[in-house]
Amino acid sequence: MWLRAFKAIISLAIIAPALVRADDLVIYNDGALASGWENWSWSSTLDFAATDLFVGTSSISIASTEWAALSLKLGSTTFQSYAGLRFDIAGAQPDIQISIQSTADNSQSPTIPLSAFGKTIVADNFTSLLIDFNALPGTGSKLESRCCGDGTWDRITFQAGGSGATYHLDNVVLVSSIVVAPQFLSAEPLANDVIAVTTVGPVNISSVSVTLNQQVLKIANQTTYIPVDTPSKSITYLQLASSLAPGSLLITAANASFAYTLPAVQYASIVQDVKYPINPHIYGVNFPSGSGYIKHLGIPMSRWGGNAVTAYNPFGGFTNAGNDWYFENRGSDSADDWIGWVQAAGSASMLTIPALDWVSKDASSYSYPRTIYPDQARFDPYNSDAGNGLFPNGSYITPPPDPTRAYTAWNTSAVKQWLSGLANKPTIVTIDNEMEIAHSTHQDMHPEPVSYDEELSRVINFATAAKAALPNVLVAAPSTCSWWFYWTSAIGYTDNAAHYNTDFIPWFLSQMKNQEATTGKRLLDYLDIHYYFQADTSSNNATAKALRLRATRSLWDYSYVDESWVGVSPQNHQWNPTAVGLIPRFKTLIDINYPGTKLSISEWSSTNDKDLTGGLVAVDVLGIFGKYKVDSATYWAEPDELGPIGLAYWLYRGYGAYFGSSSAQVNLANPKPDVLGVYAGTELGKLTLVIVNKDPAETMAFDLANVPSGKYFIRHFGGAAGVAKWQTNITIKSSTYIVVPPYTAIFLKQL
Ligand SMILES: *[C@@H]1O[C@H](CO)[C@@H](O)[C@H](O)[C@H]1NC(C)=O
Ligand SMILES: *[C@@H]1O[C@H](CO)[C@@H](O)[C@H](O)[C@H]1NC(C)=O
Ligand SMILES: *[C@@H]1O[C@H](CO)[C@@H](O)[C@H](O)[C@H]1NC(C)=O
Ligand SMILES: *[C@@H]1O[C@H](CO)[C@@H](O)[C@H](O)[C@H]1NC(C)=O
Ligand SMILES: *[C@@H]1O[C@H](CO)[C@@H](O)[C@H](O)[C@H]1NC(C)=O
Ligand SMILES: *[C@@H]1O[C@H](CO)[C@@H](O)[C@H](O)[C@H]1NC(C)=O
Ligand SMILES: *[C@@H]1O[C@H](CO)[C@@H](O)[C@H](O)[C@H]1NC(C)=O
Ligand SMILES: *[C@@H]1O[C@H](CO)[C@@H](O)[C@H](O)[C@H]1NC(C)=O
Ligand SMILES: *[C@@H]1O[C@H](CO)[C@@H](O)[C@H](O)[C@H]1NC(C)=O
């Protein structure tokens, strides 16, 4: 019916009015945008009366280039009183994401990728999709401004990804009401005697019944909780009259049923007396989005870092992201203001100080104009004169550009002037960012590969300047990007050879120690590295997810041969070189080469911020950082507060309820690090526990010796209950059978 060939026989007058209610607001039906709506699109070829595929008499056909968009704005009024947005879409799974915006205060909804709707979109037929403003697809959050008050929504944007998008839209309507059918989404066993039931709509909870090995389990009590960020869903915790036990568990509710096999226990004991402090700075992130974010997730360390701060000019408020974005200058937030609000919200700060020879001179210049270098591989879709500095064959443009085209000179005097003038003092400074790959990230102003000697001398000179300007500041360096560059420079093995065949980081540490011996002053307080898991999990299929979840072993386990190039061709002179063993390895290198230096990991990532497994990885990693005594760590980059990574931080630190300040000993009779992480904390004699079940299908049960019975606060996410901030108080009557469902992380805090 929707193809041109069938145009003669369609009679869609019957369909359209049935879908649109009188108090709905039509944006597009046929022929043109409805009155009051304006076309605010960019870089897109649009036809508002397309007749190649349509419902009614026409549709909108859209062909957007990379990052371009169809964007529609309501002229003089706003639409926040509507319940949702419905539209019909056709296209071969086009790469687009949708956002709702307020042009008045610049606030924006979370972006909603088409994949979040969970439907296959086809090219030759329309699929009807609905965005419920009370439960946005993907995050499940409400449409509300997270930055600036209430949000005066007036604009809807369908933006293409990096390869552009071609598709059709039709029947775009703001709907006045959405009826949510009552539904039982999940029902899972939890802890000692709880069934956690998640629902939407007005369900009948009394219809839930629970049997274990065909025997009915009585429900003693129930309590319902609505999570702060996802109010369309709720969870009801049914406390059973008896404990869960091994066997076959069946939960039925109205028309739904959920079955689990409860396993035999795994034995573990917790020893609170064997403990050592956890540095809270391990729970940090790069660039938190605002003070609410810091407070909600309990972020105690925030970093100003990444490729774009190498060229930060604090005097003008400019920066340049280098090869991340066409070597273009742009305006920057003020680092001083940033330190101010971050610290006012309760977080320490880690500030990167530029340590190359140049910083941005203005907010608009760029290094590779087409007018000078016409033959380049790519140009900025938003500025067709700014190229990416590569010939079409991928090699660097020659001759290198004049650095003064985009930059102004920078040196240690400028750093002293800047840091001494700061109104807000950083806790830690790092000496630039991934300086060892400047010849690539900042090829326009530092085309030569950085050698061992150059990197050392820049760290010494800029750390000296920083400590002269801010006597109490702590210095972290060299913020090396990856396993390869921990051991050699961009020059290659001849540089190792020129330094007694010593690998880079051990050499760097010993030189910083020599420097202290010579001057009597410690310049390096933290050895700072970046760590990204090397195994390829990008396919995100079941195999990749399992690999992502067990790769956390590379942080601590020398018996884990890395499942990447590192495990095959490790390229260094280190002991046990095919195992990363990251934290113990670097602690040992510090002990050998410069004792007393702390260890910081100022960039790390789960490898997938959107997938539940990324959140479970982050839970495991935060537990490992505490257990293995990392001194500071910041996630790259600002994880979505409502997404799986944000939930991992919330689990340990959300809303003022923290994991214990000391790490307590956990003894597992039969450790299974591929699929299980167990972390204990203690504070003032009270226990906290985090257990992450990384198995996609197996429920786990634990007999936990020395876990006192009594009242606990419990938080959890994952599994069938999904990504939401679920929590309640429970009473643990017996710790001999504690259940954790598949793909779930739980946090228990003794009250
Ligand atoms: C809508 O805006 C885009 C981008 O500016 C423009 O190319 C297009 O011609 C406009 N379409 C209509 C029908 O006004
Ligand atoms: C288009 O979708 C409708 C509704 O799902 C279906 O009835 C129809 O057969 C489909 N048409 C084509 C050409 O696939
Ligand atoms: C149960 O009922 C709800 C609400 O009517 C419905 O959405 C859901 O699909 C039904 N589930 C099953 C398994 O029939
Ligand atoms: C809820 O379910 C219970 C148990 O099945 C039933 O007795 C009761 O009538 C139901 N209540 C409603 C309002 O449907
Ligand atoms: C049931 O749970 C509520 C909320 O936690 C609590 O206030 C109440 O005392 C409990 N009732 C019984 C009988 O345990
Ligand atoms: C790439 O193209 C440039 C410009 O045409 C040329 O000078 C250079 O030799 C080429 N490099 C390679 C590796 O072919
Ligand atoms: C930094 O540059 C300024 C301006 O050229 C110059 O006056 C100053 O001496 C330089 N400082 C150092 C340490 O070279
Ligand atoms: C997972 O993806 C990888 C990489 O694309 C592929 O080699 C592998 O066969 C896939 N495995 C499964 C189980 O689909
Ligand atoms: C759990 O108990 C604590 C302490 O009694 C209380 O402050 C908190 O509000 C309770 N939390 C929930 C989710 O019931």
Automatic annotation (TrEMBL):
Residues of the signal peptide: 1-22
Alphabetized InterPro entries for the sequence: GH, GH44_cat, Glyco_hydro_b
Recorded coiled-coil stretches: none
UniProt keyword terms in alphabetical order: Signal
Protein origin, superkingdom: Eukaryota
Residue intervals of the Glycoside hydrolase family 44 catalytic domain: 318-535
Pfam families, sorted: Glyco_hydro_44
UniProt keyword annotation of Mitochondrion present: no
Name the record gives this protein: Glycoside hydrolase family 44 catalytic domain-containing protein
Organism: Tricholomella constricta
